[in-house]
Structure formats: structure tokens, C-alpha cells
Amino acid sequence: MTDLNNKHRVGPEELQDLEMAAGPQWLCANLLFVMFVSADEKIIPAESGQDVTLTCRATNKNIYTLEWSRADLGGKNVLFYWKHHFDPANQHPSFKNRVDLKDRQMKDGDVSLILKDVTIDDTGRYECRVVMEQTRSWGFISIINLRVVVPPDKIIPAEPGQDVTLTSQAPNNNITAVKWSRADLGDKNVLLYRDGKFETDNQHPSFKNRVDLQDRQMKAGDVSLILKNVTTADTGTYECRVAQKSEERMKLRSRRSLIVAEPKTLPAESGQNVTLTSRAPNKNIYTLEWSRADLGGKNVLFYQKHHFDPANQHPSFKNRVDLKDRQMKDGDVSLILKDVTINDTGRYECHVFMTETRSWEVTSFINLRVVDPPGQKNITALSGQDVTLTCRAQKKITVLKWSRADLGSEYVLQYHDNQSVPDDQHPSFKNRVDLQDREMKDGDVSLILKDVTTNDTGTYECGVFMEETRSWEVISIIYLTVVDPPEHKTITAESGQDVTLTCRAPNNNIRAVYWTRADLLPEHVLLYQDGQFDREDQHPSFKNRVDLQDRQMKDGDVSLILKDVMMNDAGTYQCLGFMAETHSLKLISLIYLSISPEQKFLKAESGQDVTLTCRAPKNNIRRVLWTRADLLPEHVLLYEDGHFDPDNQHPSFKNRVDLHDRQMKDGDVSLILKDVTINDAETYKCLVFMEKTRSWELISLIYLRVPPDEKTITAEYGQDVTLTCRAPNNNIRRVLWTRADLLPEYVLLYQDGRFDPDKQHPSFNNRVDLQNRKMKNGDVSLILKNVMINDTGIHKCHVFMAETDSWEITSIIYLNVVDPPDEKTITVESGQDVTLPCQAPKNNIRGVYWTRADLGDEYVLLYKDGRSDPDKQHPSFKNRVDLQDIKMKHGNMSLILKDVTINDAETYMCHGFMAETLSWVLISTIYLSVVHPPDKKTIITESGQDVTLTCRAPNNNIRGVYWTRADLVPEYVLLYQDGRFDPDDQHPSFKNRVDLQDRQMKDGDVSLILKNVTINDTGTYECHVFMAETDSWEIISIIYLVVVVPPGQTGGHTDEL
Q1: Euclidean distance between the first and the last CA atom of the chain, given in angstroms as a whole number
Q2: Mean pLDDT across the stretch 557-564?
Q3: Distance, CA of 168 to CA of 151 (rounded, Å)
Q4: Where is the Ig-like domain (predicted)?
Q5: CB 540 within 8 Å of CB 664
Q6: 739: closest CA among 748, 731, 750?
Q7: Percent of the chain with pLDDT over 90
């Protein structure tokens, strides 16, 4: 409440001095309105929102009636008090519930008026009148001039692109509406918030979607405005008006001047003098101040009434600053800053007090960046580290010297004619220095200094000998500071967690905190100074993920909170504090952060579908990659931009993998793997592409274990058999094959690249081997040679897994060795249907299985559970095979093979699945021989002609052709094999008279050309072809040639019958 008893009058000059002494932050906070009135009048200044007392005292106590009035109220009064009661009948509405008497008893004649929550509309001339009991007449006691002003402007500087808060506080919570406006916008407003919602009808378009209240609940009367992404067009004076339930109109609460300007950036080198230019709008400047926010309330320069005022100047600027023109002609208020250092880097502001407006104005923002001059660098290292002092020459160098001034005539390193010269080297550098590149390619003469200590601190000079001038030239100067390492901690966190990197400075006098990571420089993790975060050079991966544990940094606590950590966050973090005492950065703490991805173990059985769970920390995921180390560079699944990418997917996962949720809601990037097999057992990695860092982030590791299937293999006595087994990865050091009835002896043990025979069962000596001793692609299959009936049993394949440090069974195989059945041979001509007989000894047959050795894992026919299974049937047998009796009565499992071709020639095996043993048993073995029915042709031709005896083999895989005539055997007509003719046993009559029509034998054409025939050529010719499939000669064609001599003619004709 303002005291109005003081009658002291303030003159204009004294008022001005009071304003100047307060500095720019004061901004007319105690502005007094000076008016020259009669001696009976008082002048009362007040700020809007205050409660004020208008003092008035009557000469005696016998007061009958009291009235406070103001002439401009049109006959209405401010307050009327009669017979100890208020009379509101004629009270002006604006004063309802806002006025009271200081003392309703009016003791000692005190009739002072209390006026609450004043506004600028309350400005005016108030009159106090009373009626006394004795006179019953009105008398003036007091006249008071009340002048209400809006609280002084608060100047807020900002740069384009920033978000700005214009603070404003209403006196209580009873607020119904708040309005922010700017005079230059006319009747448009900046923001209007009424009854809990925004009204945008009359909002200026430039503020749509850019303004908000700091607290829409307006708790504690907070009606501050948030203005986002400011531009220079937002510069101006903003006014905040508030309406409360008891009021009929909005009252002005605050005024804020926002200045948005592009800051100037001024680069300088340490040691230089720089001028920070600034010009005020006119010459009538009374006071000037240059400041920098990080100086803790101290200024750079304060100039008033043509004198410097050093009272509040920061010590670092004493005797180093001046005005370019102390007369400030043409408004020039530029600052000269001498002998700048890196510590002078910062944002400088120039404020001037304008006499016309009686207010402070900001005329310039300048960012000064001071760097060391070229060739001179400062490097800070921790003791024990290796450091590289960089230096690059412009020309080819033959002589180089690194020196340090405090070492006298001894040097750090001298290099001459491609070798080090140790003669005058200082002992402390022996075996600790080297060149980064001894060949000094591209002029690189950088020095590596190993295992540095604090004694290595000093100024190092890189000098080269210039042949042109025959003199040494220093091309680089580096000041190396070596400090003992601070507290060094290691913190381990899991992906997705929030982690706190603790750091405590030795005292509270911290001006800024700077968190860095060496591999990210020059970008930082976090920079906090002057009470706000500096995001200009922050690494993108940390935006919105880091904060200080305590922004007040109480008790020196500058710990960093790092949210939602990822694998890429692993590294060594440095905590540096800017200490006010030394005005420099100090390394306080080193923390190594280790991030371990989520790791799980999952077991599934062959044939199941399994989900490998993985949840990424963010929802904004565009790409997910599932990999397996043993498959690289091929992947399991790649999903990006809403589509699967199959280009480099491993074939074994085609049509077997999918995402649990293709929308990846809540970061769910889990993998569905269908119909798993033993080959799917491996460690899977889930990676997500993070847009902020533009890199892949490992989220989860899952080890999938698939127990082995149990297989049954039937082999015949004397055969070699392979018991297949494939381990889930390549990193195999030991494999063990066992048979339960032989324990503790084993079948085979292979470890560290060799066989271990110590406890091998004698029956397997020299009879077992691995299919691949290098175990490529996890192949640990066993070859068992010359099997016997005693080899029958359950064989288990064990692999030692490095991940689990244990043996795991990866395959179980039941080997059944039987005596070989009698082998039958059936010969049939191509094109015929043939029945391959197979008769089981009993009726209790559950299935039949016809195979052919050359088909691999594909079969001829599989019939089980009353139906044929086509899944792995060889394509050549589809729709060509059937059982003679699908009910297999009396054990009949004979196979009908239709329309046989030469390619069907092979050994067929018939297996029956026996109900008694629940195993497959070999019943019958049949060799099918398929021959072509030979063509039989007759050709008649006349002597002297050339004739072609046609012959075409069924395919191109021909190794040789052999033409014969029965009456000439053992001599032949033509033999062609391995790409050439064989004349050794050729009949003499055919020499130089026969050839093939096509020596390439394309499309099986092996036709014979016989030239200049005679009657002696008459006979039966046979065309034989050597077939690679059967490794035998086959007759393809038979031709009877008849040669006649036409009477009286020299030529003839050829007929084919």
C-alpha cells in the first residue's frame, strides 16, 4: 500500500538523476508525475494493480457526513458515508467493492480513503468533503491528484526463431478473461482467452497457432504469454489486460517491449582490438550501458553525464574498454574492446536511455567470437593419454624439429633425412615421441606424444628448415596443458532406460556447465549458461533427451539426466564447469557410459511359429532390420517406409517372417518366425534406424534355441552312410557323436581341429569322419563307412556352444542297418508303362516310400495315412506314378511308372513303414533300364550320289557316336568321341567318305553323311550313342541302305520307305 503522507516535491532534474542511477533494468519503476498545483493539493503516484490510501483528516471529531468525489464522474461519487453507513445509491459503478475508509470510526478525524487495485482509469483529482454536526454544511478538507501509471516496460530481447515468454501476473485467481494486444495492430488482438477457451475471430493472422498462455489454468494469477518462433515483425510493445468476476471491464496489468533482431556475429583473434558498433536513433543520449548476460549483474561499461562509472564494472574489463566517440556524435555509441581473449567470447548488448521517451532502449546485440590466431592452438589432455600435436607444412620437408622453449638447447624430436636424430633430445621424450607419418605425405609433420604427464605441459613449436632461405621457420605453435584425470566412473545401463551421470563442482560459484563426448566434438551434449540451454551446437541425437538434475545447480550439482538411452549413447562423457574465480572451464568428472542391449533366450520346437520380441524406444520408426551374424550380408527381414525389402533377404526366410505389427505402434518391432527348424537356432539382432542420428541402433539380442528333430535312416549292410547334423552357427570348436549303448565310449570326438581317439569305441576306428572338417556353415555331419548290422542304434550329435558354455544336442538319428534285398533288373522301352514290384512280408504297413539315390531329399512317391504327399516329390514324377494297389492289400506296394523315358533309368528303392517298429524298412531294390526302340528305315539310292543316314539321340548329353555295319565287325563305319574322329579300326572303304552332318551334335543330331556311294555300300547300318546318364552305348537307329546302278544314267533318286 502506498504511503501518501509525504508532501515532498521532486523537480525534473532530480527526477532524471534518480532514473539514471537505477540503470536500464529499473525502466522508470518509480516514475513520478510532477504537477504544479496549489499548496493544498497533494500529488500521489501509483502503479496499476496497487492499493493506495488518499489521506484526509478533519479538524474535529463531530463528522456527520463524508463524501469522496471526482469531478469527471458526471455527478456520481466515489464514496458517500452517512450516519456510520455507506450509501451506494449514487456511487460510480467502477468503485463498487473497491473503496473503503481507513477507519470507519473516523477517530481523530481520519477520513482517509482506501482505493484498491488501481488502474490508469482511476487517475484524476479527488476531493474530500465533510459535513460537521455543528454547522450542518459541507467543507473541503483535502484535494488529491492521483496519477496511476502502468508498471514500467520490461524490455525483452530475442533472436528470430526463438520461443519467448512475456510474463504477466494478475493480483488473484478470480480471472474471467485475459487479452494480449499490440498498439500497432489496430483492433486486432494477439490473444484473447475467455471462460476457459481461446477466441480467434479477431486475432491478428500473424499470431495464429503461435501463441498460448503459459498456464491456461492461470494459477496464482499467471497470465504470461508464450510467443513461438518469433520474427523481426514481432518487435513491439505488448499489453496485457485482465478481467475479473467483480469487474465490468478489462484492466491493464503489464506492458512488455519485445525486440527481435538478427544478432551480429563478430569474429576476432585473441590479442586484437575490436570495435562493437552501435548507433542510437538520435543524439539526445543521457546514459549508455554495455553489458553481457554471463557477467552476473556486472557491466562492461557504464557512461553517464559524459563520465565513466566503474562502480559496477566487471574486473576483466578495467582499462580495456572505451567509447569510439565519447561525445556520441550522430548517436555513435560503439564500444572499443582492447586485447581480446577467448574469455571475451559472448553476447554483448548496448542499452541507451532516451531523454524524449525517458526509457531505456536496446540498440545492438553482438555475438563476439574470439579464437586463437592461426598456427597457435591450445590442447588439454589427461595424464596417461597419447596426444597428437598437429602440424602441416606447405612444401616437401627434409629437416624437421619439434622444440619446447623451457628445454634450452635440447629438443623434443628432430627428424633428418627420414630418420630420427637422438643426439640432443631431452631424456624425458626418449621412446615417447614419433611422427604421425614418417614419410610426411602431404606435408604432415604432426607429432605423437605418448603417455603424457603434467611435466609435459608447455608451448611446443613445430619448425622446418627452409632450403630457400637456409633458415628455420616455425609453422605451428601449440600450448599443451596436461592435467591429472578427475574422478573416473563407469556406468552401465540397458537400452531404453533413463540414466543420471553424476557431477558435483567444488563450490556453488558456477556460471555455466558443459557436457561433452570426445567423439562428437565440436558438437556438445549439453551447454547450460545464464539460466538457459544453448542448443546451437548441440548434437542432434541429444535434443529433448538431456536435462540437468538441478537447474539451480545447488551445492555444485551439475549432474546430467540422459533419457531413453540407446546403444549409440555409449562413450566417455566429460563434465566441465565454468568457474567464476578463474573465468575459465574446469574438467570436473569423467564418466564412461556402457549400454547393454536387451538380451533374451528363447526355446522353440521344430514346426512351431515363434515371436522374437523387440520394442524400440520411440514411435517415430521408419525402418527396422533383423539380422543374424552367420548370414551376413544377407538379412532376416528389412522393413522400411511401409514395405518389406526382399532384395538381400536370406532365402531360408522367404515367406516365413513378418512383423508382429506392421504399424509398429508403441515401438513394437517384434518378429514372427514361422515353422522353425534346427537351422533357425542362432542369435538374432533387432536394429532400428534412428532419424535423429541417421544411424542404426541395436535394440535387442535374442538367442533362439531349437531342439533337434529325431530322424530315422535305413541303410544296407556294406554301404557308406551320412548322419546329417548342422549346428546353428559357425563358431564351433568341438563336436561329439555318441550312441547310448556304448557310453562312456563315443563314436567320434573332434576338437581344436583334430580327432581325439582316446575313448573312441574300437568298432569305429578308421570307419568314421566328418563330412567337412572345417565345419563350414555349421556342418558337423558324420560319415560312417561300411556299415554293419551292429551299427544299428540311436546316434546323437553334440556341439559345444560358446554362448552357453555347454554341450547341446543338435541332432538325434536312429540308424537301422539291414541286409540288402535282392536287386532286380527290369528293361523297358521308352514310352511304355512299367510296374516296379514290391511285396512286404506282412499286411501291417502304414506307408510306402519310393526313392531314387540321385534325387537327394526329393522322392519318387510318398504314400502315408491313406494319401499321397506331393511336397517333396521330384517334378519329373508328378502325375506319372501311382501304387498298383492304394490299399496295399497283402503287402503289395508295387509302383506303376507311366510313359517312361531314358531319364527314368536308375536304381529304385521301395521302403515300407512298419507298424511294429514304427520305422522305415527297405523292402526292394530295382534297377530300371530304359532303351529307345530303334528306328528301322530303308533307303534306296543310286551309285555315285551322297546320302544322309539320319539319327537323332533323345538329349544333348552325348559323349560319343558309333556307326557300324554288321558284316564289317569288328571294323566300323565311323567313331566320333571327345570331339574328334577315331580312325584306328575304321573300315578302309569309308576313309574320307564319311562325316557327321553336325559335329556339334546339336539337339542330338548324329546323322551320318556317306559320299559317292557304290553298290558295295549296300547293307544294314546301326547308329549307337554313348549316354552319360547310363555310362553305356545305346542303339538309336537302324537303316538298311540299298545302292543300285541305273541303266544308261549317271544319276539316280533316293526313296525312303
Answers
A1: 137
A2: 92
A3: 11
A4: 24-130, 151-251, 257-363, 374-464, 486-575, 597-688, 708-810, 821-910, 934-1025
A5: no
A6: 748
A7: 36
C-alpha cell at 108: 481523530
CATH homologous superfamily for the domain 602-705: Immunoglobulins (2.60.40.10)
Q: What digits encode the pLDDT tens for the residues 194-217?
A: 989 999 999 999 999 999 999 998
Cα 209 versus chain centre, distance: 31
Q: Which residues share a beta bridge with 748? A: 737
134-170 pLDDT, tens digit each: 667 777 688 999 988 766 556 687 888 889 999 888 8
Class of domain 377-483: mainly beta
How far apart CA 69 and CA 793 sit, in angstroms, is 120
Mean pLDDT to the nearest integer, 408-430:
89
Q: For residue 1037, give every residue at least 6 positions away whose Cβ sits within 8 Å of its Cβ, in sequence order, or none.
A: 934, 935, 937, 949, 950, 951, 952, 1022, 1023
State which amino acid sits at residue 168: S
Q: Of the CATH numbers 2.60.40.10, 3.90.550.10, 1.20.120.530, 2.30.130.10, which one belongs to the domain with range 154-259?
A: 2.60.40.10
pLDDT of residue 1055: 42
Q: Which fold has domain 823-931?
A: Immunoglobulin-like (2.60.40)
Please provide the size of the chain in residues: 1057
- Selection from 908, 937, 939, 906 nearest residue 1031 by Cα: 906
Domain boundaries, the chain: 42-149, 154-259, 272-371, 377-483, 500-595, 602-705, 709-818, 823-931, 935-1044
Whole-number Å distance between alpha carbons of 805 and 363: 73
Percent of the chain with pLDDT over 70: 88
Structurally, at CATH architecture level, domain 709-818 sits in Sandwich (2.60)
SS3 667: helix
Cβ proximity of 948 and 997 under 8 Å: yes
Q: Mean of the per-residue pLDDT values for the chain?
A: 83
pLDDT tens, 1000-1050? 889 889 999 999 999 999 999 999 988 776 677 888 888 999 999 887 655
Contact yes or no for 298/249 (Cβ under 8 A): no
Q: What is the CATH number of domain 500-595?
A: 2.60.40.10
Q: Which tops the pLDDT comparison, 231 or 803?
A: 231
C-alpha cell at 854: 540321385
Closest CA to 922 of 844, 823, 843: 823
Other Cβ atoms within 10 Å of 154 Cβ, number: 17
pTM: 0.30
Model confidence at 17: pLDDT above 50: no
d(CA 247, CA 96): 9
* CA-wise closest residue to 336 among 319, 346, 353, 323: 323
Confidence of residue 383 (pLDDT cuts 50, 70, 90): confident
377-483 and 154-259 share a CATH fold? yes
Task: For residue range 752-777, list pLDDT tens digits in order.
Answer: 889 999 999 999 999 999 999 988 88
> 994: closest CA among 1054, 1053, 1047, 951?
951
Query: What cell was used for 1038?
Result: 537302324
Sign, CA dihedral 605-611-616-617, equals negative
Answer yes or no: CATH 2.130.10.10 is held by domain 935-1044. no
**Rounded CA separation 1041/973 (Å):** 13
CA 3 to each of CA 6, 39, 67, 792: distance values in angstroms, whole numbers, following the listed order: 7, 19, 21, 114
Contact 350, 361 (CB under 8 A): no
How crowded is the C-beta side of 812, counted as CA atoms within 13 Å?
A: 9
For residue 843, which phi and psi values (nearest 5 degrees)?
-85, -15
Range in 12-16, 316-320, 347-351, 632-636 with the lowest mean pLDDT:
12-16
Domain 272-371 has CATH 2.60.40.10: yes
Query: Would you call 1057 exposed, middle or buried from its count of C-beta atoms within 10 A (0-12, 13-18, 19+)?
Result: exposed
Asked whether the beta carbons of 193 and 199 are under 8 A apart, the reply is: yes
